[in-house]
Amino acid sequence: MADPLDDPVWSALTGPHAHLAQRRGRVMRYPPELSRFIAIPHPTTARDWADAAALVGPEQAPVAGIVVAPHDDWKVTGVGPGLQLVEDGVEPRVDADAVRLGPDDLPEIVAFVARHRNGRVFTPRTLELGVYLGIRRGGVLVAMAGERLRPQGWSELSAICTDPAHRRQGLATRLVRAMTAVLHERGDRAFLHVRLDNPGALAMYERLGFRIRREISMGSVHLPPAP
C-alpha cells in the first residue's frame, strides 16, 4: 500500500478532502476558488492528460513531481526543488494566545496573507481546508498558521507567517506547536514542505522536531484548451 505522503494531493482528494474533489475520469482537482492543486494518477495515460485539460482548462495548475511537459503544446513553469518534512519529536502545546480564525476574520486574513506571503492569495473558501490559528497584538493579527492538504492520517501545515515587526519573538514556533496539538487531538500528524532556497525555515523546523522525509519537485503545468 502506497504511503499517503508519496502523493499527498491524491491522498487528500480521495480521503479527508474527498467532499471537495471535482473529477473527470481519474483526474481530480480542488475547486479553483479554494486551491489550484490537481491530482493525476500514476502511471499517467494520454486519456488522463486529456481529462486534466478538460477539467482545468488553459490555466496554471500546481502538480507535484512534474518536471517535463506531457505534450509539446503544454508548458511547465516554476519547477523548484524542495523537501518534505514530517514531525518527529515536535512538542504539541496548546497556546491560549493562539485563537481559531473564522469567517468573521476573513478580511483581515486575506490582507495579512497578501502582505506577508509574497502576494499569495487567501480566498474566502480557504478556511474550508481546515483549522487556522492566529495571534494578535493590540487586537491586530500579527502571526498565523493553518493547514492545507490532508492525506489520510496527516495534515500539511501551511500559511505560516509573521508580521516583520513581530519576528524573532517565537510566534511561529508557538503556532506550529499549537497546530500540532490540534492535529493530534483528532489523530493526525503534521508534515510540511520547504523550498531548498529557504534554509532559515528548514533550520527552524528541524529545531522544532521535524525531519526530512524526502526531496520533492514542484511545478505548475499550463494546460492547453480542451479540443
Quick gist of this model?
The chain is an alpha+beta fold and 227 residues long.
Largest sheet: 8 strands, mixed
Q: Indicate the proportion of strand residues.
A: 25-35%
Secondary-structure element order, as H and E? HEEEHEEEHEEEHEHE
Overall mean pLDDT: 89
Report the end-to-end length measured between terminal Cα atoms.
36 Å
Tell the overall outline: globular
Number of helices: 5
Number of strands: 11
Give unreliable regions as ranges: none
Helical content band: 10-25%
Radius of gyration, whole Å: 18 Å
SS-based class: alpha+beta
Give, in spatial order, the strands making up the sheet with the most strands.
4-11-5-10-9-8-7-6
Describe the protein:
- The chain has 227 residues and is of the alpha+beta class.
- Helix content is 23%, strand content 31%.
- The protein contains 5 helices and 11 strands.
- The protein has helices spanning 8-13, 46-56, 106-116, 171-185, 199-208; strands at 22-24, 27-29, 38-39, 60-64, 75-87, 99-100, 132-137, 140-147, 154-162, 189-195, 210-222.
- The strands form 2 sheets. Strands 4-11-5-10-9-8-7-6 form an 8-stranded mixed beta sheet, with helices on both faces.
- β9, α4 (171-185) and β10 form a beta-alpha-beta unit.
Question: Would you spell out the secondary-structure blueprint of this structure?
Answer:
Layout: H1 8-13, E1 22-24, E2 27-29, E3 38-39, H2 46-56, E4 60-64, E5 75-87, E6 99-100, H3 106-116, E7 132-137, E8 140-147, E9 154-162, H4 171-185, E10 189-195, H5 199-208, E11 210-222
